[in-house]
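Hello again,

I reread your note about wanting to compare the complex against the isolated chains. To keep things tidy I'm splitting this into two emails, and this first one only covers the full assembly. Below are the input lines as submitted, including protein chains and any nucleic acid or small-molecule components. They are followed by the predicted structure of everything together. The single-chain runs will come separately.
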Amino acid sequence: MPSWTMQPIGFVHSPFSQTEQVPRGLGAKHEEEGWFEILPEFAAGLEDIDGFSHLYVLWVFDRSPGCELVGTPPCDMRPHGVFASRSPRRPNPLGLTVVRLLGRDGIRLRVRGVDMLDGTPILDIKPYLSSVPEAELQRGWLAEAEARREKP
Amino acid sequence: MPSWTMQPIGFVHSPFSQTEQVPRGLGAKHEEEGWFEILPEFAAGLEDIDGFSHLYVLWVFDRSPGCELVGTPPCDMRPHGVFASRSPRRPNPLGLTVVRLLGRDGIRLRVRGVDMLDGTPILDIKPYLSSVPEAELQRGWLAEAEARREKP
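Full-complex prediction:
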Protein backbone atom coordinates (compact mmCIF):
# COMPACT_ATOMS: atom_id res chain seq x y z
CA MET A 1 0.00 0.00 0.00
CA PRO A 2 1.40 3.44 -0.91
CA SER A 3 1.97 6.05 1.78
CA TRP A 4 2.75 9.76 1.97
CA THR A 5 4.64 11.63 4.64
CA MET A 6 3.25 15.05 5.54
CA GLN A 7 5.04 17.86 7.35
CA PRO A 8 3.63 21.08 8.84
CA ILE A 9 3.58 24.30 6.83
CA GLY A 10 2.79 26.16 10.05
CA PHE A 11 1.03 26.01 13.40
CA VAL A 12 -2.23 27.23 14.96
CA HIS A 13 -2.29 29.74 17.81
CA SER A 14 -5.64 29.17 19.47
CA PRO A 15 -7.21 29.96 22.85
CA PHE A 16 -7.81 26.24 23.46
CA SER A 17 -5.16 24.26 25.31
CA GLN A 18 -7.46 21.32 26.22
CA THR A 19 -9.86 19.35 24.03
CA GLU A 20 -12.66 19.96 26.53
CA GLN A 21 -12.49 23.72 25.86
CA VAL A 22 -13.41 23.38 22.18
CA PRO A 23 -17.18 23.79 21.64
CA ARG A 24 -18.57 20.48 20.36
CA GLY A 25 -21.87 18.87 19.54
CA LEU A 26 -25.18 20.12 18.20
CA GLY A 27 -25.31 23.81 17.45
CA ALA A 28 -21.72 24.42 18.60
CA LYS A 29 -20.53 27.81 17.37
CA HIS A 30 -16.91 28.37 16.42
CA GLU A 31 -16.41 32.11 16.73
CA GLU A 32 -13.06 32.14 18.52
CA GLU A 33 -10.22 34.09 16.98
CA GLY A 34 -6.70 32.82 16.58
CA TRP A 35 -3.59 32.97 14.41
CA PHE A 36 -1.99 30.74 11.87
CA GLU A 37 1.77 31.15 11.88
CA ILE A 38 3.24 29.91 8.60
CA LEU A 39 6.84 28.72 8.49
CA PRO A 40 9.11 31.28 6.78
CA GLU A 41 10.12 28.85 4.02
CA PHE A 42 6.47 28.71 2.86
CA ALA A 43 5.80 32.46 3.08
CA ALA A 44 5.80 32.91 -0.72
CA GLY A 45 2.79 30.60 -0.94
CA LEU A 46 0.67 33.20 0.88
CA GLU A 47 0.85 35.67 -2.05
CA ASP A 48 -2.65 37.08 -2.78
CA ILE A 49 -4.33 35.14 0.02
CA ASP A 50 -5.54 38.44 1.51
CA GLY A 51 -8.34 38.77 -1.07
CA PHE A 52 -10.24 35.72 0.15
CA SER A 53 -12.77 36.03 2.95
CA HIS A 54 -12.78 32.35 3.90
CA LEU A 55 -10.15 29.62 3.87
CA TYR A 56 -10.07 25.87 4.21
CA VAL A 57 -7.43 24.71 6.66
CA LEU A 58 -6.24 21.10 6.64
CA TRP A 59 -4.54 20.13 9.86
CA VAL A 60 -3.47 17.19 12.02
CA PHE A 61 -5.25 15.84 15.09
CA ASP A 62 -1.81 15.50 16.66
CA ARG A 63 -3.14 14.70 20.16
CA SER A 64 -5.84 12.22 19.14
CA PRO A 65 -5.58 8.76 20.73
CA GLY A 66 -5.73 6.63 17.59
CA CYS A 67 -8.49 5.44 15.29
CA GLU A 68 -12.02 4.30 16.13
CA LEU A 69 -14.07 3.30 13.06
CA VAL A 70 -17.42 3.46 14.88
CA GLY A 71 -17.99 5.74 17.83
CA THR A 72 -20.65 7.63 19.76
CA PRO A 73 -20.24 11.41 19.40
CA PRO A 74 -20.95 13.81 22.30
CA CYS A 75 -24.11 15.06 20.58
CA ASP A 76 -25.89 11.73 20.17
CA MET A 77 -26.45 8.51 22.05
CA ARG A 78 -26.09 6.37 18.94
CA PRO A 79 -22.85 5.20 17.33
CA HIS A 80 -21.89 6.39 13.84
CA GLY A 81 -19.15 5.61 11.37
CA VAL A 82 -16.07 7.81 11.49
CA PHE A 83 -16.60 8.92 7.86
CA ALA A 84 -20.10 10.11 8.80
CA SER A 85 -18.77 12.19 11.70
CA ARG A 86 -16.18 14.80 12.64
CA SER A 87 -14.57 12.50 15.22
CA PRO A 88 -10.85 13.11 15.82
CA ARG A 89 -10.18 9.35 15.90
CA ARG A 90 -9.73 8.87 12.14
CA PRO A 91 -7.62 6.39 10.11
CA ASN A 92 -5.60 9.39 8.87
CA PRO A 93 -5.72 12.04 11.62
CA LEU A 94 -6.78 14.88 9.29
CA GLY A 95 -8.85 17.83 10.45
CA LEU A 96 -10.67 20.31 8.21
CA THR A 97 -11.95 23.73 9.24
CA VAL A 98 -13.43 26.70 7.39
CA VAL A 99 -12.20 29.97 8.89
CA ARG A 100 -12.86 33.64 8.19
CA LEU A 101 -9.65 35.45 7.25
CA LEU A 102 -9.52 38.67 9.27
CA GLY A 103 -6.10 39.91 8.22
CA ARG A 104 -2.53 39.08 7.36
CA ASP A 105 0.67 40.32 8.90
CA GLY A 106 3.52 38.73 6.96
CA ILE A 107 3.57 35.03 7.84
CA ARG A 108 0.74 35.39 10.34
CA LEU A 109 -2.93 35.03 9.36
CA ARG A 110 -5.50 36.30 11.84
CA VAL A 111 -8.65 34.17 11.60
CA ARG A 112 -12.05 33.65 13.20
CA GLY A 113 -13.58 30.22 13.71
CA VAL A 114 -10.73 28.18 15.12
CA ASP A 115 -11.72 24.84 16.62
CA MET A 116 -8.23 23.39 16.98
CA LEU A 117 -5.96 23.15 19.98
CA ASP A 118 -3.10 25.59 20.42
CA GLY A 119 -0.03 24.32 18.59
CA THR A 120 -1.97 22.22 16.06
CA PRO A 121 0.14 21.51 12.94
CA ILE A 122 -1.24 22.91 9.67
CA LEU A 123 -0.71 20.85 6.50
CA ASP A 124 -2.41 23.01 3.88
CA ILE A 125 -4.51 26.12 3.29
CA LYS A 126 -6.85 26.54 0.30
CA PRO A 127 -9.22 29.32 -0.74
CA TYR A 128 -12.92 28.69 -0.08
CA LEU A 129 -14.58 29.36 -3.43
CA SER A 130 -18.20 28.26 -3.35
CA SER A 131 -20.89 26.82 -1.12
CA VAL A 132 -23.50 24.12 -1.46
CA PRO A 133 -26.89 25.88 -1.33
CA GLU A 134 -28.57 25.24 2.03
CA ALA A 135 -31.72 23.96 0.27
CA GLU A 136 -29.70 21.08 -1.24
CA LEU A 137 -28.06 19.96 2.01
CA GLN A 138 -29.11 16.86 3.93
CA ARG A 139 -27.41 16.33 7.25
CA GLY A 140 -28.27 12.71 8.06
CA TRP A 141 -28.07 11.52 11.64
CA LEU A 142 -27.09 15.00 12.83
CA ALA A 143 -30.42 16.44 11.70
CA GLU A 144 -32.18 13.52 13.40
CA ALA A 145 -30.25 14.08 16.63
CA GLU A 146 -31.18 17.76 16.55
CA ALA A 147 -34.85 16.92 16.00
CA ARG A 148 -34.77 14.49 18.95
CA ARG A 149 -33.24 17.15 21.16
CA GLU A 150 -35.92 19.66 20.21
CA LYS A 151 -38.75 17.18 20.91
CA PRO A 152 -37.48 15.14 23.86
CA MET B 1 10.01 18.91 12.51
CA PRO B 2 7.23 16.36 13.18
CA SER B 3 5.79 14.33 10.32
CA TRP B 4 2.81 12.04 9.73
CA THR B 5 2.51 9.13 7.36
CA MET B 6 -0.83 8.80 5.60
CA GLN B 7 -2.21 5.70 3.86
CA PRO B 8 -5.23 5.35 1.58
CA ILE B 9 -8.63 4.37 2.97
CA GLY B 10 -9.78 3.78 -0.61
CA PHE B 11 -9.48 4.88 -4.22
CA VAL B 12 -11.41 7.01 -6.72
CA HIS B 13 -12.95 5.54 -9.87
CA SER B 14 -13.29 8.51 -12.19
CA PRO B 15 -13.77 9.04 -15.95
CA PHE B 16 -10.50 11.04 -16.06
CA SER B 17 -7.27 9.21 -16.85
CA GLN B 18 -5.29 12.35 -17.82
CA THR B 19 -4.98 15.68 -16.00
CA GLU B 20 -5.96 17.53 -19.20
CA GLN B 21 -9.42 15.90 -19.12
CA VAL B 22 -10.37 17.44 -15.77
CA PRO B 23 -12.30 20.72 -16.24
CA ARG B 24 -10.20 23.58 -14.87
CA GLY B 25 -10.21 27.33 -14.67
CA LEU B 26 -12.90 29.97 -14.39
CA GLY B 27 -16.43 28.65 -14.28
CA ALA B 28 -15.34 25.01 -14.58
CA LYS B 29 -18.21 22.70 -13.68
CA HIS B 30 -17.58 19.40 -11.95
CA GLU B 31 -20.65 17.32 -12.72
CA GLU B 32 -18.98 14.04 -13.60
CA GLU B 33 -20.04 10.93 -11.75
CA GLY B 34 -17.67 8.40 -10.28
CA TRP B 35 -17.18 5.90 -7.47
CA PHE B 36 -15.23 5.82 -4.28
CA GLU B 37 -14.18 2.29 -3.41
CA ILE B 38 -13.33 2.04 0.28
CA LEU B 39 -10.95 -0.67 1.46
CA PRO B 40 -12.80 -3.50 3.26
CA GLU B 41 -10.93 -2.92 6.53
CA PHE B 42 -12.47 0.58 6.76
CA ALA B 43 -16.02 -0.43 5.77
CA ALA B 44 -17.37 -0.01 9.32
CA GLY B 45 -16.49 3.69 9.15
CA LEU B 46 -19.16 4.20 6.47
CA GLU B 47 -22.02 3.45 8.91
CA ASP B 48 -24.78 6.10 8.51
CA ILE B 49 -22.99 7.98 5.73
CA ASP B 50 -26.01 7.44 3.46
CA GLY B 51 -28.00 10.21 5.18
CA PHE B 52 -25.69 13.00 4.05
CA SER B 53 -26.22 14.66 0.69
CA HIS B 54 -22.70 16.06 0.38
CA LEU B 55 -19.28 14.88 1.51
CA TYR B 56 -15.82 16.33 1.81
CA VAL B 57 -13.18 14.08 0.30
CA LEU B 58 -9.52 14.52 1.22
CA TRP B 59 -7.21 12.89 -1.28
CA VAL B 60 -3.65 12.81 -2.60
CA PHE B 61 -2.35 14.50 -5.76
CA ASP B 62 -0.35 11.30 -6.34
CA ARG B 63 0.72 12.26 -9.87
CA SER B 64 1.68 15.88 -9.17
CA PRO B 65 5.25 16.85 -10.09
CA GLY B 66 6.30 18.39 -6.77
CA CYS B 67 5.76 21.73 -5.07
CA GLU B 68 5.67 25.23 -6.56
CA LEU B 69 5.02 27.97 -3.99
CA VAL B 70 4.07 30.60 -6.58
CA GLY B 71 2.54 29.66 -9.92
CA THR B 72 0.34 30.94 -12.72
CA PRO B 73 -2.96 29.03 -12.90
CA PRO B 74 -4.65 28.18 -16.23
CA CYS B 75 -7.37 30.75 -15.58
CA ASP B 76 -5.16 33.82 -15.09
CA MET B 77 -2.02 35.38 -16.49
CA ARG B 78 -0.77 36.46 -13.09
CA PRO B 79 1.08 34.30 -10.55
CA HIS B 80 -0.49 33.52 -7.19
CA GLY B 81 0.63 31.80 -4.01
CA VAL B 82 -0.16 28.11 -3.72
CA PHE B 83 -2.25 28.69 -0.56
CA ALA B 84 -4.38 31.18 -2.54
CA SER B 85 -5.03 28.63 -5.30
CA ARG B 86 -6.15 25.06 -5.97
CA SER B 87 -2.84 24.19 -7.67
CA PRO B 88 -1.84 20.51 -7.41
CA ARG B 89 1.79 21.50 -6.70
CA ARG B 90 1.45 21.90 -2.93
CA PRO B 91 3.94 21.40 -0.06
CA ASN B 92 1.73 18.53 1.14
CA PRO B 93 0.00 17.07 -1.95
CA LEU B 94 -3.51 17.20 -0.44
CA GLY B 95 -6.63 17.62 -2.55
CA LEU B 96 -10.09 18.54 -1.26
CA THR B 97 -13.36 18.09 -3.14
CA VAL B 98 -17.03 18.46 -2.20
CA VAL B 99 -19.12 15.75 -3.85
CA ARG B 100 -22.82 14.91 -3.95
CA LEU B 101 -23.46 11.43 -2.53
CA LEU B 102 -25.77 9.63 -4.97
CA GLY B 103 -25.84 6.24 -3.32
CA ARG B 104 -23.99 3.54 -1.46
CA ASP B 105 -23.50 -0.10 -2.33
CA GLY B 106 -21.48 -1.69 0.48
CA ILE B 107 -17.96 -0.30 0.27
CA ARG B 108 -18.74 1.68 -2.90
CA LEU B 109 -20.02 5.25 -2.82
CA ARG B 110 -21.50 6.62 -6.03
CA VAL B 111 -20.86 10.36 -6.23
CA ARG B 112 -21.27 13.37 -8.52
CA GLY B 113 -18.66 16.10 -8.84
CA VAL B 114 -15.41 14.18 -9.14
CA ASP B 115 -12.42 16.23 -10.28
CA MET B 116 -9.72 13.66 -9.53
CA LEU B 117 -7.92 11.25 -11.79
CA ASP B 118 -8.91 7.60 -11.90
CA GLY B 119 -7.08 5.70 -9.17
CA THR B 120 -6.57 8.72 -6.90
CA PRO B 121 -5.92 7.63 -3.29
CA ILE B 122 -8.51 8.80 -0.73
CA LEU B 123 -7.26 9.70 2.76
CA ASP B 124 -10.47 10.74 4.48
CA ILE B 125 -14.20 11.40 4.03
CA LYS B 126 -16.18 13.78 6.23
CA PRO B 127 -19.82 14.91 6.18
CA TYR B 128 -20.47 18.39 4.75
CA LEU B 129 -22.53 20.10 7.42
CA SER B 130 -22.90 23.79 6.62
CA SER B 131 -22.07 26.44 4.04
CA VAL B 132 -20.73 29.96 4.16
CA PRO B 133 -23.55 32.23 2.92
CA GLU B 134 -22.76 33.46 -0.61
CA ALA B 135 -23.25 37.08 0.50
CA GLU B 136 -20.29 36.73 2.91
CA LEU B 137 -17.87 35.22 0.38
CA GLN B 138 -15.02 37.16 -1.20
CA ARG B 139 -13.07 35.31 -3.87
CA GLY B 140 -9.97 37.49 -4.27
CA TRP B 141 -7.94 37.22 -7.46
CA LEU B 142 -10.38 34.70 -8.91
CA ALA B 143 -13.20 37.24 -8.89
CA GLU B 144 -10.83 39.77 -10.49
CA ALA B 145 -9.80 37.30 -13.18
CA GLU B 146 -13.45 36.57 -13.93
CA ALA B 147 -14.20 40.30 -14.20
CA ARG B 148 -11.28 40.78 -16.60
CA ARG B 149 -12.54 37.94 -18.75
CA GLU B 150 -16.04 39.41 -18.91
CA LYS B 151 -14.70 42.86 -19.88
CA PRO B 152 -11.68 42.13 -22.05
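For quick reference: Residues 140-150 of chain B form the longest helix (11 residues).

B.
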